[in-house]
Specification:
With about 500 residues, this protein is of the alpha/beta class. The protein has helices at about 40-60, 65-80, 80-95, 95-115, 155-165, 180-195, 210-215, 230-240, 265-275, 295-310, 330-345, 380-385, 400-405, 420-430, 470, and strands at about 5-10, 10-15, 20-25, 30-40, 125, 135-140, 145-150, 170-175, 200-205, 220-225, 245-250, 255-260, 285-295, 350, 370-375, 390-395, 415-420, 435-440, 475-480. The chain has two domains: about 5-250 and about 460-480, Aldehyde Dehydrogenase, Chain A, domain 1 (3-Layer(aba) Sandwich); about 255-440, 3-Layer(aba) Sandwich (Aldehyde Dehydrogenase, Chain A, domain 2). The N and C termini lie far apart (about 80 Å). It binds nicotinamide-adenine-dinucleotide.
């Protein structure tokens, strides 16, 4: 018997009205069932929205510093139970324990940062063109917001959305990924423990079309914050557009690292290894293309192959393991199909390119670290997000060519350049079409106090975290207070 987890609606833990459930399994060992979860349907979603709607008045009128106090309590609980959450994350999502701890830490950082916003949430005051008139901009809650998240950062990504949404006075319906419902449920339990009033945060677990889409379609939900694939994101945006709701999309990436001829190669190699194979390549910011200057191509490639070959792949709980499993069978199939596509397109498979089998590998979804050489920017493996431990090495002969190749995809999330030339580094900051640029660091490793998001096909112009967080999850209201005691007409009665 596995534990049965429920939805959280109106402050109560409830079963789906349809009675259907699904299981979440450990991707490193599929016989280990993490739990049984509610397979929610439209009527469950409607109940959750009813609850969020009913709670909105009280929560939106609660002073922001009081809302923030609850968020800080969640931060402290999460900090206290960091190891327990990290272990759960490794069990349910597969990432190595050290990264699981990092993911939980990101949630703690976000909570602390956002708790401070409860006493800031700055507006603006501006001078009026008229005498005895006050003009200001204030922030107000949006209403009920729907949060839909992926599985690759099962604690951090929900916290990027939950904490700012709540501090701004919104109420929430949260639909986590079907692969990581246990992490989401445990996180929601912390809010209950911290004293969040009933109905302010509601959790519905289940699948995208059944439990996600009804949130997007309900007119009472005034904002959707979605992180996931470009394909689903486009669907979500189209549906959200019908009821004119605000729609924040954080989608895929095809992130490039440029290694120039003057790069510190030791540093670049370490960065490449971490960027490409960290989280088994299942990061939206994963380094999936390494654009290497031809002068250092041979040395860089040989040394990368040696390092990648030496990576120990296995269950993330093992402290000696460098790279865990991929999330599920379907993802494994997709990754392998891209290996075949790469070979068919004429790229050189230099390492890996196969599922790992035998012994404990047979219990889960393991794929070998995979490196392609001689990759051309037109190839599909250089254009499409693979979301696995596959990296493409792309030779170039100049900085100009490197930038052209880097910018040649539909995505624009993260980017990196390794060079010792300060002028080139700043040029790259200017030239790379991405929401994030790293100099002498890999494409992964964002900190929560700066905005996070991308350009082009990675999103639709929104940013999470940092100073954007409050901006995104609040409405602006312009306020004029005329204390002259007479009618003053803007643009007309000016002196
Ligand atoms: P996905 O798009 O398959 O699913 C994301 C979420 O959307 C899940 O909760 C899913 O149930 C839900 N969903 C699916 N269909 C839906 C529908 N019709 N209506 C509403 N919701 C629906 O993505 P995934 O496989 O979980 O995550 C991997 C993707 O996420 C990658 O493309 C990755 O790059 C992206 N990602 C982006 C960022 C970022 O900040 N830019 C961060 C992490 C992951």
């Amino acid at each position: 018997m596995t534990d049965v987890f429920k939805n959280f609606v109106g402050g109560e833990w409830v079963e789906s009205s349809g009675g259907a459930t699904f299981e979440s399994v450990n991707p490193a060992n599929t016989s280990d069932v993490v739990g049984t979860f509610q397979r929610s349907n439209k009527s469950d979603v409607v109940s959750a929205i009813d609850a969020a709607n009913a709670a909105f008045f009280g929560w939106s009128r609660t002073p922001a510093p009081a809302r923030a106090d609850i968020i800080l309590r969640v931060a402290l609980l999460l900090e206290e139970r960091k190891e327990e959450f990290a272990q759960l994350e490794t069990r349910e999502m597969g990432k190595v324990l050290q990264e699981g701890r990092g993911d939980v830490q990101e949630g703690i950082d976000m909570a602390k940062y956002i708790a401070g916003e409860g006493r800031r949430m700055f507006g603006e005051t501006v001078p009026s063109e008229l005498r005895n008139k006050f003009a200001a901009l204030i922030r107000q809650p949006i209403g009920v917001v729907g949060l839909i998240t992926p599985w690759n950062f099962p604690i951090a990504i929900p916290t990027w959305k939950l904490f700012p949404a709540l501090v701004c006075g919104n109420t929430v319906v949260f639909k986590p990924a079907e692969d990581t419902p246990a992490c989401a449920t445990r996180l929601v339990e912390l809010f209950e423990e911290a004293g969040l009033p009933p109905g302010v945060l509601n959790l519905v677990t289940g699948f995208g079309a059944e439990a996600g889409q009804p949130i997007v379609e309900d007119e009472r939900v005034r904002m959707i914050s979605f992180t996931g694939s470009g394909e689903v994101g486009r669907e979500v945006a189209a549906r959200a557009g019908r009821s004119l709701k605000k729609c924040m999309l954080e989608l895929g990436g095809k992130n490039a690292m440029i290694v120039m001829d003057d790069a510190n190669l030791d540093l670049a190699l370490e960065g490449a290894l971490w960027g490409a194979f960290g989280t088994t390549g299942q990061r939206c910011t994963a380094t999936s293309r390494i654009i290497v200057h031809e002068a250092v191509l041979e040395e860089f490639t040989q040394r990368l192959l040696q390092k990648a070959q030496a990576l120990k792949v296995g269950p993330g709980v093992d402290p000696d393991v460098d790279m865990g499993p991929v999330i599920n069978e379907q993802q494994l199939t997709t990754i392998h199909e891209y290996t075949q596509v790469g070979e068919a397109e004429g790229a050189k498979l230099l390492l890996g390119g196969h599922r790992l089998t035998g012994g404990e590998y047979d219990q889960g979804f393991f794929y070998a670290p995979t490196v392609f050489g001689d990759v051309n920017y037109r190839m599909r493996i250089a254009q499409e997000e693979i979301f696995g431990p596959t990296v493409a090495i792309m030779p170039v002969s100049s900085y100009g060519e490197a930038v052209k190749v880097a910018n040649s995809t539909e995505y624009g999330l993260s980017s990196a350049i390794y060079t010792q030339d300060i002028n080139l580094a700043f040029q790259a900051v200017q030239d790379l079409e991405a929401g994030i640029t790293y100099v002498n660091a890999p494409t992964i490793g964002a900190e929560i106090q700066l905005p996070f998001g991308g350009v082009k096909g990675t999103g639709n112009g929104h940013r999470e975290a940092g100073t954007s967080a409050v901006r995104e999850f609040s409405e602006m209201k312009s306020v004029y207070v005329d204390y002259s005691g007479k009618l003053q007409r803007a643009q007309i009665d000016v002196e």
